[in-house]
Fold these 4 entries.
Entry 1:
Amino acid sequence: MRYLSTRGRAPDQQFCDILLGGLAPDGGLYLPETYPKVSAADLAAWRTLSYADLAFEILSRFIDDIPAADLRAICQKTYTPAVYCNTRAGSDATAITPVTWLEAGNGPNHQGGLALLELSNGPTLAFKDMAMQLLGNLFEYVLDKRGEQTNILGATSGDTGSAAEYAMRGKHGVRVFMLSPHGRMSAFQRAQMYSLQDDNIFNIAVKGMFDDAQDIVKAVSNDHAFKAKYKIGAVNSINWGRVVAQIVYYFAGYFGATASNEQQVDMAVPSGNFGNICAGHIARMMGLPIRQLICATNENDVLDEFFRTGVYRPRSSAETHVTSSPSMDISKASNFERFVFDLVGRDPAVVCQLWQQVESGGSFDLNDTPYRDALAGFGFVSGSSSHADRLGTIRATKKAYGIVVDTHTADGLKVAAAHRDAAVPVLVLETAQAVKFEETIREALNEEPPRPEGFAHLESLPQRCEVMAVDVDVIKDFIRAHVVD
Ligand SMILES: Cc1ncc(COP(=O)(O)O)c(C=O)c1O
Ligand SMILES: N[C@@H](CCOP(=O)(O)O)C(=O)O
């Protein structure tokens, strides 16, 4: 399988190269040259597989430069109930991503039902662990084979950082430099990252928002000489490895929620950087019977605005709200470029022209272009949620179903409710556990959220983190000083 850049000005590459390379050298994002199609026979054969075996089947359609036996072993090592053990009481840890019905709907295919797809049972209690644990094992495997090292530069609004650090701590040949928005994450998120004392982990809090941190990551990656000299890698969802691993749980969720491959489902996805829902889009393009992808945003509603109006208008950091679903405080969604590449018929010239407008601080409007009509064929609908909605949803979910959901999942539930249909079940992707956002849970419920074992004294552990200006050169100097050749 060859991978090509959305900007069309980078050489096509194979999976292991883009895994280590991250962003394409022309500033674009890599995508497979075609999406593999799944047949009815594939769906029938995959329905009863374990999560690890399903991951192998799906990943092997995209990865042909790792021997099959090795890829299977990596999947088996990654997707175990011991790694994804932080399940809600009563959920089946062996499923890895259990489906919890809030309302079962009708019949074996749960028409009209409402369910949570539990994705946050891994070591850091957020959906990022689903892909990041795999990435940690893939990085180690490829680096060992090549006798190379990598210095990962990442940006986080709260969850990618800890998931990456837990996946990469102690891995041979890997150092992690993680940029986080100073003072913007929850106390639990800060403690998860900043309490790590491993020699290969460096936490840097930048005095800005997530988008500023993401811009630094892209600027450093676009300095080709620096990137080559310091072997800079990526773990954000700009790295295709993240997106491909996320495709798997759309299939697992579909099988978990239906009894027949004739049935369609809707999937509601709390969205920020568009990485999660982009994986859903690709699963749908592969032939998974997803009727609608419901894109749920918080007050930072750039994506919702696009799906409603056809206008994509990223906001500046000054216009980005600090919200109680902080991991979605994003106004420039990286992976949206991957979707637009598909929307415009995979024409890199169109993507270059649109992103020229975006990168010079502008916007684009697809009305009066053929792409506005084409949009309807991709199955997206959307909505946004506010702090008051979030509190109301957390309260209503607890009252009706006895379940405490996190603030991002609450955004998903709120927007899903507006698009429910008696003909299909809707699965809301549960992207984090409530304990990560304790303050808002207390405000909503006047009680403490459930805290999985092993996290009892997290916030009282000693923390270490460097605070820096939003300045590419300052970050490069820090990397230079900490990379031993
Ligand atoms: C808990 C949580 N929910 C939702 C999102 C949004 O996901 P994405 O950025 O892939 O759209 C994030 C961050 O990415 C997150 O950490
Ligand atoms: N919400 C993320 C932001 C980064 O997204 P990514 O999927 O591109 O890594 C976070 O919590 O850090």
Note: The mean pLDDT is 97.
Entry 2:
Amino acid sequence: MAVYTDVTDEALYAFLTTYDLGRARSFKGIAEGVENTNYLLHCESGYFILTLYEKRVNPTELPFFIGLMEHLAAQGLSCPLPVKRRDGGALGELAGRPAALVTFLDGVSARKPEVHHCLETGRALARLHLAGQGFGLRRENALAQPHWRPLFETSRAGADTVTPGLAGEIARELDTLEKSWPKNLPRGIIHADLFPDNVFFIGKTLSGLIDFYFACEDFFAYDLAICLNAWCFEPDGAFNATKGRAMLQGYESLRPLEAEERAALPILSRGAAMRFLLTRLYDWLNVPPGALVKPKNPLDYLARLRFHQAISAPSEYVWRP
Ligand SMILES: Nc1ncnc2c1ncn2[C@@H]1O[C@H](COP(=O)(O)OP(=O)(O)OP(=O)(O)O)[C@@H](O)[C@H]1O
Ligand SMILES: N[C@@H](CCO)C(=O)O
């Protein structure tokens, strides 16, 4: 459960006096997520999500995230909409953290993603990439390839306590990624964390996307590689090419990949696995005292990384013997 910051009733009531949402009826910490503190707030006017931004969110970048959700919603993409205070602002402070309220999105995430979820998610990812094109603000990817080695250095000393040899294996892979990372692929606004918990469905219909707090500018195909990692592996670690095919089909139904993007999928997928291996490793080794959070297992992403290392052709993501 990700509740790093407690909010007292008094602090909440004071915060809510600046909005026109009516009286609070209930307020409770949300059991999912690892990055930010989230509460479900039920007010007289409806349900809202209150987010207190934690360590990986730079407060100066919050206008980008808020503006992006507003832009995407205006383009017809279903995502949370920041709620404005009476003074017109959407960003505030609560319990010493930057905080904002967003609208509650109906739907549930797929606990066990199936092929049709992958198809719909691929389509939604392409829709997001296309819808982001007119957005005026920019944000560099703070977790892009050049940042992986410094991030690794913060965990290097503890890495082998997670599994023997991990530090050496990561260091060698970082060498390869530094040499082989693509320099010039189509780029724009990407979600950068479109995991199953950030995609909602009502029945088989995708009802919306949440959690834009890693969104940034980077290669579109890297975002797709993040999704291949997050959606197309089975709990036992096996890659499911049927899901990979559905993910790519969904994506390409709206935004066909260029030949260079397709060719880069194996290295982008290795990079995506490395990014989540590194953040998970850091979080595994640095659980804040008293935080209600269950860190995610870094080794799931070591297994994915090894899978991508063995890929000899991008076609293996859509067809495997
Ligand atoms: N707008 C929303 N509407 C409905 N539920 C939401 C909304 N935003 C967040 N949630 C709920 O809160 C949970 C955590 O939110 P979110 O994924 O943004 O947190 P996080 O800590 O950034 O998580 P992650 O580990 O995915 O980065 C979601 O899984 C979902 O259950
Ligand atoms: N989606 C991430 C957590 C948020 O960065 C993970 O599963 O590691």
Note: Strands lie at 24-29, 37-43, 46-52, 92-94, 97-103, 108-109, 187-190, 199-202, 205-209, 216-219.
Entry 3:
Amino acid sequence: MSGAPDEFDLIAQLFAPLSASYPGAFNLTDDAALMDVPPGRQVVLTMDAMVAGVHFFADDPADLIARKLVRVNLSDLAAKGAVPFAVMLAAAFPQGIEAEWLRAFADGLGQDVAEFSIALIGGDTVSTPGPLTLSLTAFGHVPTGRALLRSGARAGDLIWLSGSLGDSALGLRARQGQLTDLNPLHRDFLIHRYLLPQPRVALGPALIGVASAGMDISDGLVQDLGHLARQSGLAAEIRLADLPLSVAARTATENNNSWLACILGGGDDYEIAFTADPAQTQRIRQLADDSGVALSAIGQMTAGQGVAVMDRQGKAMEVAQRGWRHFSNAGEQP
Ligand SMILES: Nc1ncnc2c1ncn2[C@@H]1O[C@H](COP(=O)(O)OP(=O)(O)O)[C@@H](O)[C@H]1O
Ligand SMILES: Cc1ncc(C[n+]2csc(CCOP(=O)(O)OP(=O)(O)O)c2C)c(N)n1
Ligand SMILES: [Mg+2]
Ligand SMILES: [Mg+2]
Ligand SMILES: [Mg+2]
């Protein structure tokens, strides 16, 4: 492909190679793909869209935009305990987009297709007079009947969280010109966490038979745990002191307490929150050691409803920011 991109060259030259490992994708030359499911497994499907100016900045590197798109979707699959195997891409590219940008985008897609052993099995390519708009559908599989659901938590279960919380939301604030007193290394780390989330693809499947419920944290810990608690018919209580913070996030919040709200409700974490019977604690600690992904017990499920955040004195805190909403009704209680 040289000069101005052509729709069919783009598909044949840049996207088709990413389907090579999947015969049912017909090298992206047919109307649809065919999918077989391994015996004893169920397909898990998820779709997340990303829009320039809403989920990422239009001038973010094209390869990282593509990889973030893959990763936010694989995060949902991991939260269900699923092993990812395929994705479908719907891309609306702004008119006049450059061939070089598309090549970088496809390179990024290819990097993550390889890294996560998945295939691009189809999609659609259109132009838009609006901002770059991307949607990915991701497919994974789990042993039939064993997927982790939001509804499986029981009273007394501990709440666990992978990785560290708030890095990405702080990275976004740093890019927006806030958090100006960060040291450059911390700033780069936080921005990297924003640009390139790390879906917990190995952890998810390992949690089957260990966790009672799971979800990924995309909107903000407090809001998202609220969804899990509601679906399980329970309340969630988390302890501020036990939230896993990176050195960079800890430093940022030490200097300025108002960033705490960002950690509790800033979103873009793409970490997995799961619940488990306290009897599973040893196994979970072993999983963390084996996988190299930190797992922290941050609270417990109790009878009741809602999410309470306990401060360092054990008192319920006011939470200024519970999580991201694309739309909200004025006057509605969050
Ligand atoms: N436009 C839509 N049409 C159908 N289902 C949707 C739509 N938007 C969201 N959903 C469904 O609503 C549920 C919650 O979505 P969402 O909050 O985006 O979850 P997540 O944060 O895990 O991506 C999911 O089951 C999702 O498939
Ligand atoms: C430029 C920019 N501004 C703001 C945000 C913050 N933000 C946008 S959407 C979102 C929540 C997650 O996106 P969503 O579409 O709700 O994904 P899902 O919850 O469906 O996985 C957050 C925290 C961002 N990521 N980038
Ligand atoms: Mg979603
Ligand atoms: Mg999710
Ligand atoms: Mg959301």
Note: Residues 16 and 176 are 37 Å apart (CA to CA).
Entry 4:
Amino acid sequence: MAGVTTLSLATSVYIAESSACIGTGLFAVDDLDSGQLICRVSQPLVTSLDAARLVDTCSNCYVWTEGGSTGSRLYVKEGTKVQACAGCKRFRYCSKACQKQAWKRGHKQECKIFSQLGDKKIPNIVLACIVLLIRMKSGVITEQVWLPIMELNAHIDDFKQNGTYDDIEKMALGAQQLSFSSHQLELHIVTGLYARILTNCLTLITPTFDPLGIVMDPLLGRFNHSCDPNAFMVMDGPEVSIRTLKPIKTEEEIYISYIDTTNPYARRQKELKSSWFFTCKCSKCEKGPIQSEDNWAIRAQDMSDEWKQQADSIIAREEYNPGPINYVGNSKDEERVAALQTVVFWMYDEEQKVSDPAEAIDMIKHGMIYCIKTGLWPLYRQPYAALRDDAIVNLLSLGSYEIAWAHCAKRYRYIHPRLYPQAFHPVRVVQTWQMAMLALYLASTQAMVAPQADMALIAYMLIMEVRDASKSSHGEENAFTKSVSAKFDEMTVEFRDKLGAGADAALSDEMPRQRRLLAEMGDRLGE
Ligand SMILES: C[S@@+](CC[C@H](N)C(=O)[O-])C[C@H]1O[C@@H](n2cnc3c(N)ncnc32)[C@H](O)[C@@H]1O
């Protein structure tokens, strides 16, 4: 599919009323196996970068020139830089070719208007709204494209009910004024457009899931949500691919997930209700809070007296309000567990706002200590697992590679199989890749990570695993898959050069032992 998407271009899916969800959904035209491509949108209708990414990301191919941990973004060419458009100075491009493409696609109509806005900070949804309004006004977007956008649910009554409609109208007014479109479109239409972008857009991500901005497209905005999805999205620049997580039958509805489905039931429900205005009745939610995400390591009544007292002192605080999001049960002990959970999720939210890695690590440690000392949290229960993910990122920023490695090994052994059972689950694949890159780095430093551990071979085994899984998670054509394969081939050559003729047999002989050592490293941190 090239150029602007119109719904008629997608031949592997069709739109129909959803029996399980509000409005319409997308359904499979054919039987599909797991790990297969369902459909691909090569150029979504509009993509808008976060303000922080406008300065270091190409506004055409979305290559992010900064960020990401060392070596984990091999798919970005070394030395890639972006340069601002000489006209508007707002959008940047990594090459003349990218600038030309963006110009042809619509920047030609937008550049002058954006140049008048100077360096005014514009939120990404307002920016997307402005771009759509200018393109509509100048005829770049035809009726044929405009109508499917306006068919999407705007949830105006829901916004009125939750008290945010006035804010939405204000943002829409801003977009209307900044795009000089008040003569063409009345405010209520622009407000409807803004509301539609807000509830139907997706996060623009790199192939390794770094968030860059938003994507709005009438086809992509049709996928409904399930906490037990049968599909997922991966991106590669502006290209969005929808792939199967499970086999899908002809005429079956395709579901992606809008949220982190590893969270407990009450949290998922609250998030979906407040951002998308529905009560999820997916196959998982239908069963209630009895799934693996809701497990505690011990029963509430078996918590130690010390922690029961600690929970009572939290409950006694004037500002304490666990809300339905932390509901655990009605007994006194379950209320105590809810209080502790409230605190740990609060710590998690707070550490995420901190930009200094050392400060973040302190807060993460505090949160993890709660999870460990209460004895309540299994390794995979949130936000314990998410705190560990953030610990790894921050430890890497601080250069604490060996501790980061120990956390990676634990996550790999105990958390991945539980939270992401499919070996090709995209989150599992990307995290394993980052772990492989860390192993490679540790191999280069000759660090003694564990007696007899051969970090180069461990890295090679992990890369092999990612190479196989990424064909299903990202697809053979994705830049990530290609760079993983290239890295694997490069290492194969290096091993053969080093070990000579019997290299392949020697590596195969040694791998089971290194696999055992890797598993043991998952136990070295205690909890
Ligand atoms: C991105 S849109 C999906 C397309 C939408 N069904 C439509 O007809 O335009 C998101 C909206 O779809 C509905 N929706 C998505 N998943 C749902 C689900 N699991 N149950 C009920 N409604 C759902 C909600 O109204 C939500 O705000």
Note: The longest strand covers residues 211-216.
